[in-house]
Amino acid sequence: MQFLHPWLLWALLALALPIIIHLFHFRRFKKVYFTNVKFLKEIKEEKSTRNKVRNLLVLLSRLAAFAFLIFAFAQPFLNKDKAVKQGKNYVSIFIDNSNSMMASSEDVPLLDKAKKKAEEIVQAYDAADQFQIMSHELKGAQQRWINKENSIEAIEEIEVSAEVNKLSNVFYKQKQTSPKEGNHIIYLLSDFQESITNMELAQDTTLEVNLLPFQAVKENNITIDSAWFESVIPSINQNNKLYVRLKNHSPEQKDDVRLSIEHNGQTRPEGTVDLPPNSSVVDTVNLLVSEAGWQRMKIKIDDYPIQFDDDYYINFNVKEKLKVISVHEQNTNKYMTALFKGLPQFELTNVSSSSIKYDELKDTDLVILSDLRKISSGLAAELKTFSSNGGNVLVFPGADCDQTSYNNFLTRMNANNITGWNKEEMSVHKINTSEFIFSNVYQSNTRNVKLPVTKGNYTFSNYSNRGGEQLLEYRNGQNYITKYKQDKGNLYVSAAPIDKKYSDLTINAEVFVPLLYKVAFSATQDDKIAYTIGQDNFTETKTAATSNELIFKIKGEEEFIPGQNNKGSTAVLTFNNMIRKAGFYDVTLKDEVVKGLAFNYDRIESNLANLSKSDLESRYGAAANILSNSMEADLSTIIKEKDQGITFWRWCLILALIFLAIETLLLRFWKV
C-alpha cells in the first residue's frame, strides 16, 4: 500500500485531540440527588460502567472517521508493478476521423464511439494537465497544448474528413511536439486499417503510447477505383471509349452492381457489372460528346453503407479544333494539307519559316517542320520552350539541310545529332505498337500493313543517354522516326524528308494518318481528368501573360485563392490541402473558366481490412498499451488504475462517513 500524498499522514497526530477531550470528559464529577442513600453506591457503579462503554465506542468511531478522512486526502493505492506518474501530464489524443470511421458498431458510428472514449480519457486526468486533440487534418491549431475544458470542446468539433494520413505521420507529429518536462502520453483512437497502420514503435521510457482499436461490423465494400479514356482526350461528335475500374473488397461475389453516368446534369444508366471476390473488373462505356468545352462527368454505383467511394468525378476538355502549324520553306506539302483538311478536329495553318509568329505557339498543339533547310537559333529557342510547356514538335529535315543548324537545335533538345546523308533505298521493317502513337491503332499484328520506303535518309548518332524511343525502324536497325521526351511535351524526329521524292510516307495512309493524328493529340497527354484529395496538391495551366499580378481562383464546392507560381506562359497552382470535398472545381481568371478540375476522395481506405486487438498486441504490444474500447467499461477508471494503481480514496471517504454516522447514532439513541 502506498499513498499519493504521504505528507498528509502527519495529520494523524490530530487524533490525539479527541482522546484528550474524552479523558477530560471522564474526570468530570456530577452531583446525584437521591432520597435514599442506601442504593446510591449501586446506582453510581452501574451508570459509570455504561458511560465508559458508550464513551469508548464514541471515541473509537470518532477516531476511525478522522483517520479514514485523512487517508482519503492522502489517496492510498495499490501499485501494479509500475512507477507512479508524478508531475504534470501532457496528453496527446489522435481521433481517426477518416471516412472508414463512419462504419457502424452496435448501430453507432465508430467516430462517435471514438469521441466518447476520447472524452473519458480527458476526464481521467487533472485540471492542471495539458491536452492535444488531433485528427487526420493535422492542422497547426491541433498541435497546440490546451486545457481540460477546451479539449472537450475540441473533441466535440471533430467531424468526418476526406483527408487520410498514414499513422506513421500522425505519430511523428505527436512525438514532434513532445514537452521538455512532465509526462508525455500518446493515445491513438482508430480502426487501424492495414492500409494506413505503418508505425514503427520501439520501447521509450520518456513516452507512453496507448492504442485504442475500434472494430466495425464486417462490411463488404465496392468502390470505383479509377477511370480513363482510350484516347488521350475524347473527340467531339465521336464515340469515345471510357474505361471504368471497379473493385470488390470482400470475399463474396457481388452481382448486378448498377453503374450509371451523370454527364453535364443528365443521368444515364450503363447496365450492371458482376464482381468476383477480392478482385477488380474494367467496364467500358461509350461516350458521345456533342459540344466542345469542359465536360463534367460523375460515375456512380450504389453500395451501402460505405459510400464515400461510390462516386468518381472526372473533368476533361474537348477542343473544337486542335491547332497545327506546318512550317515550310517554299512550298506547302499538299498531302499533309489534304490529310488535315479531311480531319474536322484539326485546324492546320501553313506558314513560311520567315514569317512565323512565335507568340502564336502557346495556343498550338503541334508544330511540324516540313523540309526546312535551316533552323534559326530564334526558332530553336522558341520550340524548346514550346515543347517544355507541353507542345509537340515533329521534324522532317530537308534533303539538303544545314546540318550545323539542325545539330544545334537537336543538341538544345537533348536529341541525337545528324552524322551524315545516305541515298540508299531503305524500307521500314517494324512499328512500335507498344508506344502511345501506334498503340490500339491496328486490330491485329502489323504484318499486312504497308510500311514506308525511303530513297534518302540521314544517319544519326546513337547515344543511349539521349533517351530516344523508336517508333518506326528500318531493317538495318536504324530509327526512321524517333521520339524524345521534352519535359511536358515531345520531339519527334524523322530520318527522311517528307518530300515524296525521298519518302512515300505521305501516300501511305496506314502509317501517315495515325502518326499525325496521335502526335497532335499527345500534346494533352499529361492533362489529368481526375485528382485525388490530399495527394494531388497542384495543377498547371497556360496563361497569356507572365505577370504575377494575375490572380487565379478556385471555385466549386469551396472557393479560395490557390498558391501561384508563374513559369513563363505556365502558371503552377498549389492547393495546400484546401480542397476537402469531392466534386467539380473550376480554375478561373477574371471570372472566366480557364480549366476544369475534378477531385475524388482517396481510395486508400476503400479496403476495410483492419488490425484487430490481438493483431495490435502481437505487433506493438512490447512498446504500447492496447486498451479496450468496450462501451460499458469506464476508460477514466482504467487509465487512473493504469497510472496510479488501484486507488482506495473513495472507500476511505465512505468509511469515514459510516463511522461519523455510527458516532451520531450512539450519541442520539444511547441514553445514560
Compute the number of helices. Answer: 12
Indicate the CATH architecture of the largest domain: 3-Layer(aba) Sandwich
CATH topology of the largest domain: Rossmann fold
Number of strands: 35
| Gross geometry | elongated
Number of domains: 5
- Lateral arrangement of strands in the main beta sheet: 17-16-18-19-26-25-24-21-22
Helices and strands: which structural class? alpha/beta
Helix content: 10-25%
Looking at CATH, the homologous superfamily of the largest domain is: Class I glutamine amidotransferase (GATase) domain
For the largest beta-sheet, the strand count, sense and barrel status come to:
9 strands, mixed
Task: Write down the Rg.
Answer: 41 Å
Arithmetic mean of pLDDT = 84
Distance between the termini: 41 Å
Beta-strand fraction estimate: 25-35%
Can you identify the CATH class of the largest domain? Alpha Beta
| Poorly predicted runs | none
